[in-house]
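Teaching note: in complex prediction, the entire set of molecules is handled at once rather than each chain in isolation. The prompt given to students was simply: 'Predict the structure of this complex.' The entities are:
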Amino acid sequence: MSLTSDYIKQRLTEKFGESISQVEESFGTLSFAAPKDLNLKVMQFLYDDEELQFRFLTDLTAVHYPERKGEELAVVYHLYNFRERVRLRLKVYTSVESPKVFTATKLYESANWMERETYDFFGVEFVGHPNLKRILNVDEMTYFPMRKEFPLEDQSRVDKDDEMFGRGGHIGI
Amino acid sequence: MSRPVQYNEKVKSVEIPEGYSGEGFFATSFDKVIGLARKNSIWPLPFATSCCGIEFMATMASTYDLARFGAERMAFTPRQCDLLMVMGTISKKMGPVLRQVYLQMAEPRWVIAVGACASSGGIFDTYSVLQGIDQVIPVDVYVPGCPPRPEAIIDGFMRIQDLIGQESMRRRNSEKYKELLNSYGIQ
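The expected output is the structure of the full assembly:
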C-alpha cells in the first residue's frame, strides 16, 4: 500500500479535527500546521500509527514572520517515513514574546542537536530539552541572529565607514 | 676536459652585515647577526582555514617555493614556531582558539594576516565572523587580496623578514611592546 497525501490528510483530520490547519501540498510534500500545544501529540500519532510510521525527523528549523502578530515564529518539522519513502512537513506557530514549544527530543533523538540550533538562531525555547544552550554561535552572543530585527552585518564593528560599504541607509542596493 | 662532477658555482649567500673585519676576525653587533640568522630560518605555522590556505599551498609548492627564503620547515605545533601565518576566515568561535595558539608560541613571535578575511573580515561582514584577527592578537604584516596570489604572500613574507632582520634585541623587553601585549590582555 502506498501512503498518499489524501490518506494522511484524512487520518489527521479524523484524529485531530479542526486543529489541523493550512493543509497544502508544495513541492510534492504535504504540509500542515498544528497548534503548538499539540505538536507532541500530533508527532506521537504520526510516529506510532501502524500505517503512517513517520519515525525519522529529517529537519527541524524555524522561520521568522515579523508581520504575523502573535504567531511570529514558525517551528517547522520535516518528518520521514522510511518504509514508504514519504515526507511530511509540520508547522507550529508561536509568539515571539513567549516562544515556548515542547521538545521533540523524547520522540526523536535527532531533535536534540537541531533544537539547540533553532534556539541559537531564533530563540525558540524548547520546553523539556535536556541541554538547551547555544551550539554554533559564541556563548557570549546576546541576541538571536536569524530574527529579522537584527541586520546581517556585524553591529559591533567600528573600523568600516557605513557609507563606503552601502550600509546604514536603505536596504537592498 | 670537464670534470665528471659539476658543482654549482652560483651559490647565493646573504650579504655580510656591517662590521669591522681584520686578519682572522670579524666584529659586528648581536642585533645584526641574530637578526640575519632568524630572518633566514623562519619556522612558519600555517593556520589555514579557507581559500587563502589553498594559495599558501601553491606558495609552498615547487613553482613559488617558499623554501628559497629559508622557511621550508613547516611545524604544526606552535611551541616550535616563530611565525604564525593566519590564512582565511576566522569565525568568532575560532577567535579564542587562534589566541590560544598565539599564546603557546614562544617569544620572539611574529604574525602575518593573509587575505582580506584575516585582515578585516573581508566580505563576511556578518554576525559570526571576527572582523580581523587584530581584534584578538597583534599582527605584524597584512597581505591584501581575496585571495592574494602566491607572489603577494611571498611579498608579505619578505616584509616579515625585513622586520625580523631589523628588530632590536631589546624590543621584546621594552615598555612599548609590553603595552601592546597588555592592550590584548596578554601578560
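Point out the following to students. The radius of gyration of chain A is 19 Å. Chain A touches chain B at residues 136-138, 141, 145, 150, 152-157, 159-160, 165, 167 (CB under 8 Å).
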